[in-house]
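Table 4 source record.
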Amino acid sequence: MCIHMHVGEMDTRWRGAMQQQAADFRAKGFAVQFTVEEGEPHVVEALNGAGAVRLFKDMEEARPCRSF
């Protein structure tokens, strides 16, 4: 299973928790892409509107990782 995680650079409290979660997922064998979004707070606006293309790209990249 592939997991893509995005967190705002300025959201230091949440970023630490997400980094730990990513490490836990990796320890369980998951493929994890962890991205810190520069200059963003807790709500990552860079992934709205035209930036949403990146989320769809993440989903397409994760497609081969699915196991049924």
